[in-house]
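Entry for the shared binder. Reason: the reviewer on the internal report wants the predicted structure included alongside the sequence.
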Amino acid sequence: MSKKLSVSNLLGIKYLNENDINLIFETANNFSEVINRKIKKVPSLRDITIANLFFENSTRTKISFELAQKRLSADVVNFSSSFSSISKGETLADTVNNILSMKVDIVVMRHPSPGASVFLSKNIDTCIINAGDGCHEHPTQALLDSYTLVQNLGTLSGKKIVIVGDILHSRVALSNIFLFKKLGAEVKVCGPKSLIPKYVEKLGVTYESSLESALRWCDVASMLRIQNERMNQSFFPTTREYSRDFGLDSRKLKQIDKEIIITHPGPINRGVELSSDIIDSGKTVILDQVENGVAIRMAVMYLLASRL
């Protein structure tokens, strides 16, 4: 392969340049064709062993990575921290080094601590893919989100995107802000002031307190889930009030009288950030995001494996 990524790990969007992003999207185009044909498997990663290390519960991301790995014919090892020596006091680096001694080529890791993948990349000599680290980054989710939007809009340059909801606790929000900005989009965030980081404007985005104003302004509304599992206090009065002010339903869409693209990284809290009539109406690109997640993750692992 003549084109290569400028990085040997995928630790976060902030480490990628525009050429890297375009290369991932081009490669995903090819793999998208693969996963939509009758025989969905290619031998691209035959003899490559990948370990999935998930120190947090995950369903969609873990399944998406596993499916992508199997479509590429990789050998896959799944690791759960709840059944490991981590629970007996072993350090993260020791655990991974023990796994690497079994000749693993790539580690896909989700961890509750921000920066865990960066720490690991400095302490072990293998390829690391960040599948989400605390409230920090979730790079493959941002890549599949932007890839889906590019499919629908042609480009993100000059487009207006609002990210709505729990920005404070969302790794998806941070990765998406980095990526949307790199691709030339204008970005606003919207949600309860208590869920907006104080530093958010330093990221080159602006805050909008009114969902209706944000919807009238935007081309894309990226709706986020309330991260209840990361909250140690109450950030808004009630779920009903949150839904009233920042949830999206058909009535609010009719009021703005314009077509916008609606995304959601999942899982969805029905009736909170999105109403069932929106979810079931076909007005979102959520299922496209899920399908594109496999193609994007195939592309990322294929391109990183070519650097091994």
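Summary line for the report: Residues 286-305 form the longest helix (20 residues).
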